[in-house]
Amino acid sequence: MSPPIAPPGWSRWLVPPAALSVHLSIGQAYAWSVFKPPLESALDLSGTQSALPFQLGIVMLGLSAAFGGTLVERNGPRWAMTVALICFSSGFLLSALGAATEQYWLIVFGYGFVGGIGLGIGYISPVSTLIKWFPDRPGMATGIAIMGFGGGALIASPWSAQMLESFGSDSSGIALAFLVHGLSYAVFMLLGVLLVRVPRSEKPVASGPSAYEGVQVSARNAVRTPQFWCLWIILCMNVTAGIGILEKAAPMITDFFADTSTPVSASAAAGFVALLSAANMAGRIVWSSTSDLVGRKNIYRLYLGAGALMYALIAWVGDSSKPLFIVCALVILSFYGGGFATIPAYLKDLFGTYQVGAIHGRLLTAWSTAGVLGPLIVNWIADRQEEAGKSGEALYGTSLIIMIGLLAIGFVANELVRPVHARHHVPAPKEAEDVHERQQSA
Amino acid sequence: MSTSDSSPPSAPAGTSPGRRGLIAFSWVWVGAPLAYGLYELVRKATQLFTG
């Protein structure tokens, strides 16, 4: 399948909504928790069992992005968005069948395995195209798309909850909800499939830079460079630090101020979680766009350096200032989102646009690793402290110190990033195609 | 080609009226559900100060 070339006069401002239609849909994954309680009561499942579809989905996201990236580069964004649409939507339809027949394995397979492939391919589908359309503002362009992934949960969470309320929380109600999700997301994502185009020329903006300006490195060569692994460490450390707070935000703020004169109620804790989601989403577009002005290395200095400072402030001030705790957590979460959204532009700066989508896919394994590491650190330490008879903010002190250490490691990795050595470059776009084809046939 | 515009989506120069309509439609397509999500988020977030 050849990539869809934009006709003359095609506006590049049609590409971000195409990307958003995919990212806003697949971002639903983070709202899976809405389905957990009804599934548990309807199919008699434990909490661990009901989390399986989401967990498998995230694993498949990492795997399909890593292994499918080259296919996405070769076949283009329309092919990738079509695959994402089919897989993500089919995942819901299979889950609907699973819920209707009370076959839970079908929900795990459908939503987790099939839908998870849609998540991975959908996540990387617009990245390379956006960078080629916006060589003058790659951070802003990818920030818009990746902000959509954060926004997807904001839409799906209340929408799915309302649907379950209307259809009922028994197995037939859940099946109907899955069916409506599958069909609605298919229609919504179709806009992306129909609108996405690759630019006709290397210079999509007459007065702007060329999309192929600077060095070009293939995905195969990129993973052999220290720069790739520095970025892998940076992403992994930044995400670990953010996800640690995000995953345990509600119990964390409740425990932190439990022994004070102003304890946090359950509804206030839910409000705190919502505010963190907003900071996460805002950080994706604001910080990523800022990186176009101040440079990628500087913005990661901010994420990692100021992020460590925020954690240190929380550890130092402890439970004596609730506003400071909230502000620090919001800043950390904005850096978490910013780290996700800025990484494609950082990759473009170092490796060029040639196979940036495939390189980005491989880098997302850092996300999968951080997704396990972050919650593991915070939960394991909190459990051990609780067993030791501690309570309140003392449950999280050690975790905060560890997060500072992880961000410091990321900061050092960022300082070690240098331009890629010339031996890894591919000569020029046309020749690069030839090299790529030779590599594929080798 | 190549001159797609570098101006914001509201005023893309050199774009036909049909394309302008398509740009507006596509942004509303993705903007409307996002606005709904943000509205629900703000409602929930206010609980931090009132809850």
From TrEMBL, chain A:
Keyword Transmembrane (UniProt): yes
Residues in the signal sequence: none
Major facilitator superfamily (MFS) profile domain location: 1-417
UniProt superkingdom: Bacteria
Any one GO molecular-function label of the UniProt entry: transmembrane transporter activity
One Pfam short name: MFS_1
Segments traversing the membrane: 12-32, 52-72, 79-98, 104-127, 139-161, 173-196, 228-246, 266-287, 299-318, 324-347, 359-382, 394-413
Membrane topology note: Multi-pass membrane protein
The protein's name: MFS transporter
Species this protein is from: Streptomyces flaveus
Automatic annotation (TrEMBL), chain B:
Keywords noted in UniProt: Membrane, Transmembrane, Transmembrane helix
Segments crossing the lipid bilayer: 20-39
Protein name: Uncharacterized protein
Organism: Streptomyces flaveus
